[in-house]
Amino acid sequence: MKRSPASIHKRRGGDDLDFVEPFFLISCGDINSMFSLFGPSQPIRTREKVWLELGVGFLLSEFGRSLLDPERMIDDIPDMNDRMYSGTPDEVQQVFRTVCERMEAPQERISLAGLDGQDADEALGTYERGDESDTIRLSETAQEDYLTCVATLAHEIGHVRLLSEDRLFVDDPNHEQLTDLFAAMAGFGVYIANSTLTDDSGYAQGWSWWNIQKSGYLSSREVGYGLAVAVHFYGGFRPAWADHLRLDAQVPFDGGLKYLSRYHDQIGSLYGESYIQPADWTTSRIMEHGRAKTAGPRYAAVWAIKEGSHDPTQFESLLERLVLSDRDSDVRANACEAVAQIDLDISVQCEILSRALRDPDIEVRATAAKSFGDLQSPPAEYVRELEMLLRDEKPVRYAAGYGLKAFGESARSSLPQLTKLLTRALINCDDNETDFMLKAIAAIVPDGDEYFRQAFAHEGEFLKRIMSFLNPTAEEAEFTFDA
């Protein structure tokens, strides 16, 4: 199905490093699946591994072997390096020409301009698609630093190749990450990997200062492994440019080469065939991957079950085994999502997810609890199990609140706990938990307006904050709310 492409895209920059990932992304994974006593360990988490391998396969199918050949990696632009670069307009233009040439982008239809105003505070660069030409804008911060300038231009020109040529569309959820991966594979992997985290310091007039900045959409670890996947596809010999990768990219790069050379479980080129999306995998291929010895193929099998159009009942026993006994927590969590998303009998779905609520891994418990919220009218007998998770770690509490929404008024017994958690979230100014608990209560109580008025009758400030969540455009404390 054709989807509308983006008009403007930004390369992220200047992020606060004290960020919190979504609750379903924060677990550290299963140690047993990451390390082996008898061979090289898997250098990154399974979900990252599979996504990167599928991304490499997609890009190779789109652009061919020549453009993405690791032997053509650029680790230094001629007559320019970090010591010589001063950010003049001529130097920025030289970098622009070099990046366009290496990425085989139509330089004549791309305009390069500066970025100012609010966008300059929020982004290092932007891409805007036009009918006749595209416009790339760079902030002063990106222009001043050599490494950031190259990486930002490579990312934005990646948008030209992917979005302007309709190879990818804005509503693809990982299009920004895939653009970073493409820029890394199309000659600028060293720059993309080394620019994800930059710092600066100085001393003036008796004051010393230090600044650290995060940019890009992939971590150095992910870029490093993505490059290892590409190099493995092209033969697996370690290139000289790998010595220029920063350490947190170089370790997964070297580890990835060793791991893939040993296990050969790379998704997308395992059998040397052309790229096939998981949604198009055959039933036999899914079952084969689901029985694999390493975690990556098993994770990909679940992905294929979720994305495909097969009869879901034939995968019931496979998913149950993966949810309840797989060694890798990413596989177990992914299988929980699949159980809720595909068309299985509601009693089967609830029984499998109920047992997963007792998983020792926090992410699996959270994913199982959240998956209850995606079911249609689950039996009330499972409310108690989700209520018990409201005393668990914060990510699991979020998920349990979301899961209880599916039970509607059958979950009224959970209102005291949910209201207590909502009050604590308001006290702590925790907007994420406030939002989760408000939505859970609203789904359970049909007269949400009256319930919140009574519960917070003596807490005027809390009532105003609740109003701001439920009705952001209202100016008075009076509000209405539909569950």
From TrEMBL:
Q: Which organism is it from?
A: Stratiformator vulcanicus
State the protein's name.
HEAT repeat protein
Give the matching InterPro entries: ARM-like, ARM-type_fold
What the entry lists under Pfam families is as follows: HEAT_2
